[in-house]
Amino acid sequence: MKEYQTITEVSGPLVYVETDEPIGYDEIVEIETPNGDVKRGQVLESSDGFVAIQVFEGTEGVGKDASVRFLGETLKMPVTEDLLGRVLDGSGNPIDGGPDIVPDDRVDIVGEAINPHAREYPEEFIQTGVSGIDGMNTLVRGQKLPIFSGSGLPHSDLALQIARQASVPEEEAETDDDDEGSEFAVVFGAMGITAEEANEFMDDFERTGALERSVVFMNLADDPAVERTVTPRMALTTAEYLAFEKDYHVLVILTDMTNYCEALRQIGAAREEVPGRRGYPGYMYTDLAQLYERAGRIEGKEGSVTQIPILTMPGDDDTHPIPDLTGYITEGQIMMNRDLNSQGVTPPVNVLPSLSRLMDDGIGEGLTRADHGDVSDQLYAAYAEGEELRDLVNIVGREALSERDNRYLDFADRFEAEFIDQGFKTNRDIEETLDLGWELLSMFPKTELNRVDEDLIEDHYVEDVADEATAD
Amino acid sequence: MSQAEAITDTGEIESVSGPVVTATGLDAQMNDVVYVGDEGLMGEVIEIEGDVTTIQVYEETSGIGPGQPVDNTGEPLTVDLGPGMLDSIYDGVQRPLDVLEDEMGAFLDRGVDAPGIDLDTDWEFEPTVEAGDEVAAGDVVGTVDETVSIEHKVLVPPRSDGGEVVAVESGTFTVDDTVVELDTGEEIQMHQEWPVRRQRPTVDKQTPTEPLVSGQRILDGLFPIAKGGTAAIPGPFGSGKTVTQQSLAKFADADIVVYIGCGERGNEMTEVIEDFPELPDPQTGNPLMARTTLIANTSNMPVAARESCIYTGITIAEYYRDMGYDVALMADSTSRWAEAMREISSRLEEMPGEEGYPAYLAARLSEFYERAGYFENFNGTEGSISVIGAVSPPGGDFSEPVTQNTLRIVKTFWALDSDLAERRHFPAINWDESYSLYKDQLDPWFTDNVVDDWAEQRQWAVDILDEESELEEIVQLVGKDALPEDQQLTLEVARYIREAWLQQNALHDVDRYCPPEKTYAILSGIKTLHEESFEALDAGVPVEEITSIDAAPRLNRLGTTPDDEHEAEVAEIKQQITEQLRELY
């Protein structure tokens, strides 16, 4: 390995070096500063005799006298089952004071695309115990379902609730028959979150014993921003190893993707690239896709990778490039809502703009319950109508509305108070969620339920609720 | 992707930046296919400046560095054409994904190449010419049963000079065996090649007059597309672009479907791969896959191959058109294609146009959509390519460059609407914004083949919907009850048009496909409600009583009524509506 002391330029996170041998694109670099600090970086551009390096740990202390070593390989993550229960920094080094990691394998963190022909279509229902998700936006194994949130909203609590409660109902029934193979594991990748938030997560993991089956990657707010581009890839490489080599069902929580995208923009700006929308690089869609698409199931493999990335929408604007590009890649989104939050609804999930694209194949007879699809459609339609009428009420008042309209308004209120607002501690199974849905739907006369199959109405309609409503 | 015969020249890598590589000392022409680096990654020449050749590479370039070799094949990006393309799934440069899976497992590795059609499969060749016949370019010389649905026609290649047939084979052959020989010495095989960026020639382009029947009420009923037409489906995420595209791929009455998943989700392509072999084609009853070719370049697959997948798809479509088939091509999503162009362009440091897209964006889009049309082929047959492109505008804002440049070309516009999607009104196609410029030229077909007053009834529905959107503005201010009774009634009728007719459940076994006869019948039921209700109103019946008859809600169930029962059901509902309303006065 040759060492160079030929740095010609340092600019933000980037270092330019002259070389006299060919260097591979994406290759890993070590830079040693005169005072002995070793920083790692990656080749961003390689020309004859000249390379651009992106330094992960910040370029502080790097000058023309620093020496540069090219390691001749791309960035690898050491993987082993023993990573479970460990806490690592954003570059994959242990920070929990535990023993060194003895890897089974070292895997390239960029990851290769799963051949669509080798994928298995996700259709195994994951019960999160949250009605707004299970009933209305069902999560399935192998899905990528982000939480679109805003600053100051309790997205962390929701993510923790899901991590705590997530289960697959069928398997509970036959728990011990299942060999250890299909155990559940959580890979947690934190990018640029505050130490306080990090503590919240860690406390919850420790309190509930979840840490034992988790791998935690921590890049905190004061850690180098460039490292954030590596953290999720480390996390996903670990998740893929656990899922496809060790048969775990892995839930990956990535928070906060907004910080990740900021880091991308920072690098793009340092490289003087032509910026795309709002200064984010033009390749951000491709870059994000390379993360999000690393969820899924593979034919013939036991395990699965399910992703719940969290992002805070700047200004609560879902047309901002970060949520916008994310929404185009992920299979739906769970939207947190500020108004619901200030009304004290927990979790403040607004189901109307939320969506799970894989829901339809994961629910129904044999999977959840035969009436699930129809109930959810009808709840959506009714809540949307009620919500729309609220605007009108503000202008004309309730009295000016018909009995039918008033009923929809009542429904919307009860839907939020009873169906959505369940608290972060309540774990509802899917039966409970659907029965609650029927109780609310039964506020309407049967003829209003045009999204529900007539047979299902006969089976589930709660008669006395309708009587009460008309009696009022 | 067709396999290169020989290496014409070799150069050396000078620099690498993502998918863009420059090489020196390479003698190449624009769009030549080259193999890059020690691993032989496939790429295409996109710029030549002095001694420096710029290449876009179709695979990941990690670890590739200066000094490694670049081999030029001297040929443009070319697809393999021949039997075996249907029932296949390809990546963006026509490498069969099932073959790649066999060779490198579940994850896509680099540097593996495979021909687009299996060269070892035996096909039963049935000649349609005999020795002594004169044939010219494009003529059919024989047929092969490619799938249960499709008879593959073996054509004299478009660039051939033709000649007299001197020898004809019949029986079982692989695609590279010669099946017909001409007096010019030309040998014709089932296997042909064609460069993807060049349109395959035809005699003439004609005005399309036949609809591509989609089985979707809002499309056939309000905004039809012609066989040979072009359509765009723009919409924000979650508004149902992919579901609409897939419904069209499943139920449109095309002979051949080419489905391009361009920069979209892996799981979506898997869904298609799993569903299509199971689902029956409503025209033939055979599995849908028997008429379908899939091209999957998912969002995490190399970006340069995303740029090429659109061309790969349309070239395959043109080849089947040459046989006289009606081909429907779905491109989901053309925005990802445009973004791939933008990404490559920005790596080349080209002067950007609007929003960073290259200045040639509009030209590329129109070149692509112009490859659609209703054509007269050289062999005398007529074939068509209908192109339906999804557009994913950032933030759902239709004023962005890809949507705008697409709208200047396409003649059908199906605008998806996030408000409708949030209310779970699917397909979430906004009836105020959408349009079809084919309506007038297709009406004669509907009149001849479905019903006489197809156009009149559609106009009635459009008028009611227009009136509704005007009234809705007033309702927003004063509430519904403040409106005069006749207007309240119009709103009620419009609600039935929306809920019983425009809405369609793509997941329901019956409702997902609605033949034009049923589309007409459901609407005629609502029209009866309209006419009878107004009769009753004129006779002095209060509007609450009119709207509370129990026959009307049954209209909402018509979508899910089986196709063979709907006629009787509609007739019965009409009769009951009439009876119940007339009882009121």
TrEMBL record, chain A:
Pfam families: ATP-synt_ab, ATP-synt_ab_N, ATP-synt_VA_C. Transmembrane segments: none annotated. It is found in: Cell membrane. Residues 129-356 form the ATPase F1/V1/A1 complex alpha/beta subunit nucleotide-binding domain. The keyword Cell membrane applies. It comes from the Archaea. It is a peripheral membrane protein. InterPro entries: ATP-synt_VA_C, ATPase_a/bsu_AS, ATPase_A1-cplx_bsu, ATPase_F1/V1/A1_a/bsu_N, ATPase_F1/V1/A1_a/bsu_nucl-bd, P-loop_NTPase, V-ATPase_su_B/beta. Has multiple subunits with at least A(3), B(3), C, D, E, F, H, I and proteolipid K(x). HAMAP family: ATP_synth_B_arch (MF_00310). Belongs to the ATPase alpha/beta chains family. This is A-type ATP synthase subunit B. It comes from Halobacterium salinarum (strain ATCC 33171 / DSM 3754 / JCM 8978 / NBRC 102687 / NCIMB 764 / 91-R6). The lineage of its organism: Archaea, Methanobacteriati, Methanobacteriota, Stenosarchaea group, Halobacteria.
